[in-house]
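Researcher: Sequence of Dipeptidase follows. Predict its structure.
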Amino acid sequence: MEFHNLSEENNSTNSVRALVSKKKKSRQNVCFYGFLIAALIGIMIGLAIGIPLTKRDSPDQNVQEAQNVLKQYPLIDGKRWNYFSHNDLPWQYRQYVQNKVYEVNLREDTRIQWTNTTNMTSYDFPRLPPQTDIPRLKQGMVGAQFWAAFGPCSATGKDAIRIGMDQVDVIHKFVNKYDDTFELVTTAQGILDAYLSRNRIASLIGLEGGHMISNTLGVLRSFYSLGVRYMTLTHSCDTSWADNWKQDLNMTGSRRGLSAFGEIVVKEMNRLGMIIDLAHVAKQTMIDAIKISAAPVIFSHSSAFEKCEHYRNVQNDVLEMVKNNTGLVMVNFYDGYISKGCLPVNATESTMQHVIDHINYIKDFIGVDYVGIGADYDGVPTLPVGLEDVSKYPDLFGKLRANGWSTEDLKKLAGENFIRVFKDVEKVKEKQKTVQPYEDILPEDETVPNRMCYTSF
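Model: Prediction complete. Tokens:
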């Protein structure tokens, strides 16, 4: 029978039983509260230990943490033909609509506007699937972008300057058209002000290919006055003063690197405060430029040679020079430079993990302070699974977070490293403010051998 149903006892027995019951209840209360306290302690321990473990195991939580990082610091992407650390959207404008910015609605999906049936202006490069528009930039939490002013190598010695100027004009036009989204900036502080103070995508201009200055320092200075803040010394073709990466394919070929005039180009870029970009150049050109430059250099969209033996990538001895120069290697996402068809991986399909392998390799080899993002969107035909367009950055940063990257290191990768390089370039400019412009002329015997396109020097 149950305890609470006992009722026919004498008074003394009832008193004893009441006392016993009271003591039992007291012990039960003590046990109950003890259990409650122990349970609360267990919950607190679970919160202290279990939740962080859950966070590390949760892809959604890692992506959320990555998004928080990108909110605190602008993602700067530096890729090649048209996209920053580098984005080639300006080339897409040339290819698909003959630079007619006002005929395109960048607020809508460019994949719908530019299709396989859209006519192209130039067949120097294959049709590239559109990888950039404002909705995807916002989804990707891009805070700053180097838009690449690119001109094909076929314009060398002909109308390369015209194409370069047109590309710069395209950038100015779409930045002005969407001034609630983009803001043209020309300084390191300008990047932070545009993104953090005015919630704009800080838009910088990179000239992708030294052939577009047509061997003339006056043109270099003119591009700087129009807002260009980095120049890739060569594209995939030689200039009269610098060798490109294809020279390294011919192991018995020349190792000229930079000519004497090329060294002057580097020095004038230092004086101007223009960042020297060594993506696309030959290894000897890399070495010469790093030795000559008084400021840090960048590789705006190159990866690690050790992970993919392609000469567009950076070899270990040059990586060490980059560290000593306090420069920056911004990892390219193009699958041909990441894993596809190159040793030691030789993958048939590239994935996000292959990109992470390059990022981690550079981080581990020379340090987290010298690695950045240089995706190359809208400048390459194929990309790894999971990194198909500019909207995918949070996924990449989330996976890095899951792999143990700290918040501080993710900030460096996203933009702090580039801001630091840009500020150092500006410091060199300030130190050289009393240096007169270089007025050297390329020797006539070194010019492009097409006299029909030149009047003199």
